[in-house]
Every structure is written in structure tokens, then in C-alpha cells.
Specification:
- By secondary structure, the protein is α/β, with parallel strands linked by helices.
- The protein folds into three domains: 323 residues, TIM Barrel; 200 residues, Class I glutamine amidotransferase (GATase) domain (Rossmann fold, 3-Layer(aba) Sandwich), CATH 3.40.50; 52 residues, Golgi alpha-mannosidase II (Immunoglobulin-like, Sandwich).
- The chain is built from 18 helices and 27 strands.
- It has a nine-stranded parallel beta sheet with strand order 5-4-3-2-1-11-8-7-6. It has a seven-stranded mixed beta sheet with strand order 13-12-14-15-22-21-20, sandwiched between helices. A five-stranded antiparallel beta sheet has the order 23-24-27-25-26.
- α5 packs parallel to α8, α10 packs across α14 and α14 packs across α18.
- The longest helix has 29 residues.
- It binds alpha-D-galactopyranose.
Length: 690
């Protein structure tokens, strides 16, 4: 179980380094990420290297028994580089060429940048690939940088040729007959740039896919170079989520040896635990059961215009929640709070106040807990979920576009609402990735991590340590009883067939509006919505009725919705809930279709909290899926991993949690007689009997 975080010794004089290692040992830190932004220190001038300081840092850490995730510093090229290669600076959609002065200021398609990145990665590989402190390579930082320059345009065209073959196919796929956009030469095609009115949605989506692949190409170059120096060292990069990030992590996941994720819940008060569970469950899906929290904030987080301190206990509670949901540790940004620089007030394990501080004291306690639990938890299967939610980055990107029927469409919010509803009901969920870019073949051969022997990767070929499973995104639906499909806008026939087979075999499927609408290239599937899933759902939607988000829509049974309504015609499905008023009064709102041994539900409106809860808990019960723990008090999160039950009390008062029999506290060994008290804001790990 890893515990530690980003360590930036280049920001500090060497006297501080000795104190760092002593404090790390006191806290039980066993892994630090070194060198993420150290390029200008490692290569002060082109081709001139200074590794002496890094040698001393790594040796000192090794002497202290602390291992290193050694980063390649390529997210932040030094000033000398950008002055020598101005063409490698990124250009915005408005045509502004940025200059250095921050980070992530490069064009990933610029040959000079790519060459410089390969070179510094190669130098680090040559020097440190067999250093005893090296635990893994941490390539780059949070891939996602965007550029729209002429070189990017050329790379985009090359990518488009691969994807579409010829211009006729591209013109067809992009519907360029609309607004006279027909291309007669590849050279006419541009990345999406500032233009007069709405851009072409297919062009915008293809550009985001291109960028994901282009960044992946840059990652692979470094990875392969590093691998050449020592094939046994795992290699990763830290994934970051965000609507602006054009990286399809489900596609990237098989390219890293362990999925590493940065996560900064931006809810200062209640609700951060729901964000944490969501991010962790999603990361576990990418990672095929196991992943690593590479960064989170130890204390103050910036949200709604100010920094908020975490109350005592939150660092521990949330860190253990990531671990319960499959993270192989808890790492933070950052070890020591800097004296200057752009993030000078960002929180750290060692804050400006020094180690005599609440955050460092809490970290010491957390380190102890992780040491006590680590070996056992690391060997356990992931949480055993029988419910899956679909996640599809291209659908998210397509639904961020202009020209959609409502400005309130929000893919992320829709997926999070489903996850939150199941979380609050105490139902464990996985994520699966059956979207347009993952074909049925990759779904069926991926295999669920829980079906693999613990700690053994599915297709491990690089001689990695057996305790770091190879990541593998996918989604074999056969182990699930219920699959929820929110806003899966893009869907091809192969993925639709996966759902059909799942239901035919007895699965329960709940599909929301805005699913199955378009082909992967954004062309609409004709004949009525939800195109690709119409037959399976036994409905045909002939009209959308987008609504204002703040006006309730009455439904039968006293339920409410808002924001969206549709005219649904049933074609085999039974109507379970109807619209209650307005021009759709009496028309179907929620339907169920029996198909084979299972059932397929269609939800044509945006259900508010209670309505969605009642629907999902009803279908879960029909599917035979039970909550993780019976009698779980409100505000308590329960995660089960084999014999261990993780309990988190996110509420303001201590609670007594009933246990199924005599158990023990997995950290202290204390015996627990059929119940355990969890203090407000606290976490307890229980070893269950038998
Ligand atoms: C990201 C980066 C870090 C730091 C943090 C701040 O995750 O990787 O370098 O900027 O955000 O929260």
C-alpha cells in the first residue's frame, strides 16, 4: 500500500532534504513522485544535463527506505526550449500563440517538442532505470494540453486519413453537405478554430479523438524508450478528469501498467464523499480492478472562490475510501508546501507551519493505519459489484457541443446523479465502457478483475512486480445483474448488441434519454430515438420536448422530473409511469420491455432525486442485488472487500452500525459484539466473521 506524494526537492536547499526524509519516515511515507516539473534543473541548457542533485535525492530516499515514482518532466518545457523552438508553443482556437511562464505550454505535435521529450526521458531512463529506489516511472503529468496550430492541423489531417480513408468518406461522415463545407483537398481541413457561428460537431468530436490519440502517441514514445532500459519497471502517467481534457482514459488504460488518477473533489462540504466514490469506482473500472490515487489535496482545496480547510478526520476518511474502492495507496499533491511559485498556497502534508500541525499529525496516524492494513487489503479482490454504470468519453464530448436541443444537457451530471443515487442506497457499482469506441470483442475478452486470481494481471507480459496488476479497461457485462446507461449518446451496432445479449440472458437494463441517438461520428440514427436501442427497449420516441430545468414535470405516482420530456410511443414495452400534465399528459414517461430472460427500462425524462432512487432501488431489488450492509445508518458508507468491511461516517454525529455477528476491528484487533460505533467523520475497518 503506497503512501506519500509529489516531492519537489529542487525547490529547496539540501539541508531541507535531510529533514524531508526524516519526516517521511515518521509519517510512514513509502513512495514519492520526484521530478515532475524539474526539466529546467535536469537540463539547464539544450543537451547539458545536471543529474548530480537528483542522484543525491534518490540515494538519500533509498537510504531512508523510501521508493520513488520517477517522473519525466515533459509537462513543463524550460524557457530555453521555447525560445529556441517558438513553433513548439501552443496556439489557441482564437489563433493566439501562448508563451512560457506557466506550465503545459507546448504543442504535442511539434517535432522539436517530441524530440526533446524523448531525449530527456531517455537520459533519465539510462541513468536511473536500475536505481534501487525506483518503483515506477511516472511519465509526464496530466496529459491533456490542447493546440490548434498549423502543425497540429497537419497531424490532424494524417489522423483523419487513417480514420476515414478518403475524402468522400470524411465528407459523408462529417455531413459536409450542410453549409457548403464539402472538402475537395485534405489541405482544406483545419482543427476547430474560432469561426463565425456553430462549428461542425463531427469535426469537433474527431478533433478531440485525434488529440487523445496524439497525446497517447507522445506518451508511448517515452514509455517505450523507458521500457528499453529495464522492462521490469512499471510505467504510468497520472490521469486527470475534466470536461476540457481530450483524453479517453478508457482507451488509454491498457497502455499503462497501473492506472494512476489525480482527484480533487471540489465539494468543500457534504458531497465530497460522493465525488470520491464516483472517481474511485471509475478509476477502478479503467484499472481493471486496481488503480492508484496519484494525487489529491491533503488539506485546503480551492472551490467557490476560496480555499477551504478540511475538518479533522477528512484526510483519513477520504483516503481510506479511495483505498476501500481499489486504490493501491494514497498519494498527495504535495509533500511540502512551497515558499513561492504559482501554487504557493496549495496544501501539503508538511504545510508552511511545519510538521507541528494538524495535517501532518493526521498524516502520521493515516500512515500507521495504512501500514497495518496494507498487505492484506492489497491482496483482496475489488469490491464485488453486480451493478454497472456505463461511461463513454466521446459521448460526453459530443454532448458538450453546440447546436444541441437544450443548453442544460450535462453528461457528467447525469452519470454522477445515477452513481450518487446508487451510492446513497448503499449499492456498490462498477463502471463499464461499452461506448462507441470499444467494440464488442474487447468487451467480451476483458474479463472482470474479480474473476482473476488476486494480484495477478490478465495479460501481464512485461515482468512487472506481481503486486501491480496490469490495467485493463473493459466491461464484461455477464457478471452484472443491472446495467444503467445514462446519456450514452453515441452508440454503434456492436455495443448495442452487447446490451441486447445482456438483457436476453436475464440482465436488467435501465436506459436514460439521450442514449443510442447517434453513430460514433455524430450522425443521427434514423427512424425514431433511441435509435440503436429502440427494439430492445420496445419504444419509439418521435419528438423531444426539452424543458426549463427549474419547472417541475408531474409524473404519475406523485413523482417529479424536470428539464426534459419526450413523446414516447410504445412498441412492445409496457408503460410504468406516465406524464401527468401538459401536452404529454397520459403519455408514457418510463417503460419496461421484457426481452429474453431480462428486462429493459427506458426513462424519457430527467427524474429528480426520489423518483430516480425509487426506480433504481426497485430494479436493483428485482435484479436480486442487495445493499452492501443491511441496517446501514444514514450518512454511513459501507464498502465490502472479502472479509473486510470499510465503514465511513460522513455525518455530524457518532453512529452505531449493526454487524452480522461478532467481528473485530481490523486495525486494533479489538473485538466487536454485533455492532461498532463510528465517530462523526470517522472510519473503521471491520473484519467480519467466517
Ligand atoms: C494537478 C497537478 C499538480 C498540481 C495540482 C493542484 O493535479 O498534477 O501539479 O497543480 O493539480 O491541485
Amino acid at each position: 500500500m503506497f503512501f506519500g506524494g509529489d516531492y519537489n526537492p529542487e525547490q529547496w536547499p539540501e539541508e531541507v532534504h535531510a529533514e524531508d526524509v526524516a519526516l517521511m519516515r515518521r509519517a510512514g511515507v513509502n513512495l514519492v513522485t520526484v521530478g515532475v516539473f524539474a526539466w529546467s534543473h535536469l537540463e539547464p541548457a539544450e543537451g547539458e544535463y545536471d543529474f548530480a542533485w537528483l542522484d543525491r535525492v534518490l540515494d538519500r530516499l533509498h537510504d531512508g527506505g523510501i521508493r520513488v515514482a520517477l517522473a519525466t518532466p515533459t509537462a513543463s518545457p524550460p524557457p530555453w526550449f521555447t525560445l529556441a523552438h517558438p513553433e513548439a508553443l501552443p496556439v489557441t482556437a482564437d489563433g493566439v500563440r501562448l508563451t512560457h511562464g506557466s506550465r503545459d505550454t507546448y504543442c504535442v505535435s511539434a517535432p522539436a517538442y517530441r524530440a526533446a521529450a524523448r531525449r530527456i526521458a531517455g537520459e533519465l531512463g539510462r541513468r536511473y532505470a536500475r536505481h534501487p529506489a525506483l518503483a515506477m516511472w511516472h511519465v509526464h503529468n496530466e496529459y491533456g494540453t490542447d493546440c490548434r496550430c498549423d502543425r497540429t492541423a497537419a497531424a490532424f489531417r494524417a489522423w483523419l486519413r487513417e480514420r476515414h480513408g478518403d475524402l468522400d468518406a470524411l465528407n459523408e461522415s462529417w455531413t459536409t453537405a450542410f453549409w457548403s463545407q464539402r472538402y475537395s483537398d485534405w489541405a482544406q481541413i483545419m482543427p476547430p478554430r474560432a469561426t463565425q457561428y456553430l462549428p461542425n460537431p463531427a469535426q469537433v468530436l474527431d478533433f478531440r479523438r485525434f488529440l487523445s490519440d496524439e497525446l497517447l502517441g507522445a506518451y508511448r514514445e517515452q514509455r517505450d524508450r523507458l521500457r528499453g532500459f529495464n522492462p521490469d519497471v512499471p510505467i504510468t502517467t497520472n490521469f486527470v478528469q475534466g470536461g476540457w481534457v481530450s483524453v479517453d482514459h478508457a482507451r488509454w488504460a491498457s497502455e499503462v501498467d497501473v492506472v494512476a488518477v489525480d482527484h480533487y473533489p471540489d465539494t468543500a462540504d457534504g458531497g465530497a464523499e460522493e465525488e470520491t466514490a464516483f472517481a474511485a469506482d471509475l478509476a477502478r473500472g479503467w484499472g481493471g480492478g486496481s488503480w492508484l490515487l496519484m494525487e489529491t489535496a491533503p488539506n485546503l482545496i480551492y472551490t467557490r472562490g476560496r480555499m477551504h480547510a478540511k475538518e479533522p478526520g477528512r484526510l483519513t476518511r477520504h483516503s481510506l475510501a479511495y483505498v476501500a474502492r481499489g486504490s493501491r495507496g494514497a498519494l498527495y499533491f504535495q509533500w511540502r508546501q512551497p515558499r513561492g511559485g504559482a501554487e504557493l498556497f496549495h496544501s501539503a502534508l508538511v504545510p508552511h507551519a511545519g510538521p507541528d500541525s494538524p495535517v501532518f499529525r493526521e498524516a502520521v496516524g493515516l500512515g500507521r493505519t495504512l501500514r497495518a492494513l496494507g498487505p492484506e487489503v492489497a491482496a483482496l479482490d475489488p469490491p464485488d459489484a453486480r451493478i454497472a454504470i456505463t461511461w463513454d468519453a466521446p459521448s460526453w464530448w459530443a454532448l458538450q457541443g453546440a447546436g444541441l436541443p437544450s443548453a442544460d444537457i450535462d453528461y457528467l451530471a447525469a452519470v454522477r446523479q445515477v452513481h450518487r443515487t446508487l451510492f446513497r442506497a448503499g449499492l456498490q457499482t462498477d463502471f463499464v465502457f461499452p461506448g462507441a469506441d470499444l467494440r464488442a470483442a474487447s468487451l467480451s475478452d476483458a474479463g472482470h478483475p474479480a474473476d482473476r486470481p488476486a494480484g495477478r494481471p490478465a495479460d501481464h507480459s512485461s515482468g512487472l512486480p506481481a503486486d501491480l496488476p496490469v490495467s485493463r479497461a473493459g466491461g464484461d457485462l455477464s457478471r452484472y445483474r443491472l446495467v444503467v446507461v445514462p446519456h450514452l449518446y453515441l452508440l454503434d451496432d456492436a455495443a448495442a448488441a452487447v446490451f441486447r445479449d445482456f438483457v436476453a440472458a436475464g440482465g436488467h437494463l435501465v436506459v436514460s434519454y439521450l442514449s443510442g441517438i447517434a453513430e460514433p461520428d455524430t450522425r443521427i440514427r434514423l427512424g425514431g430515438y433511441p435509435g440503436a436501442l429502440r427494439d430492445l427497449l420496445g419504444v419509439r420516441v418521435v419528438e423531444w420536448h426539452p424543458q426549463p430545468p427549474d419547472v417541475p414535470i408531474a409524473l404519475s405516482g406523485g413523482y417529479l422530473a424536470s428539464g426534459w420530456a419526450e413523446r414516447v410511443e410504445t412498441a412492445g414495452a409496457e408503460t410504468v409511469v406516465r406524464y401527468g400534465s401538459g401536452i404529454l399528459a397520459g403519455a408514457p414517461a418510463i417503460t419496461r420491455n421484457r426481452h429474453g430472460a431480462g428486462s429493459a427500462w427506458y426513462v424519457s425524462t430527467a427524474l429528480t432525486g426520489d423518483a430516480l432512487r425509487d426506480l433504481l432501488t426497485r430494479v436493483a431489488a428485482e435484479a436480486g442485488v442487495a445493499p452492501v450492509l443491511d441496517g446501514r445508518p444514514d450518512g454511513v458508507e459501507a464498502v465490502r472487500r472479502g472479509p473486510l468491511l470499510f465503514l465511513f461516517n460522513h455525518g455530524p454525529a457518532a453512529v452505531v452500525v449493526p454487524l452480522p455477528g461478532t467481528a473485530s476491528d481490523a486495525v486494533t484487533g479489538r473485538e466487536l459484539d454485533r455492532s461498532v460505533t463510528v465517530r462523526d467523520g470517522g472510519a473503521v475497518v471491520v473484519r467480519l466473521p467466517g
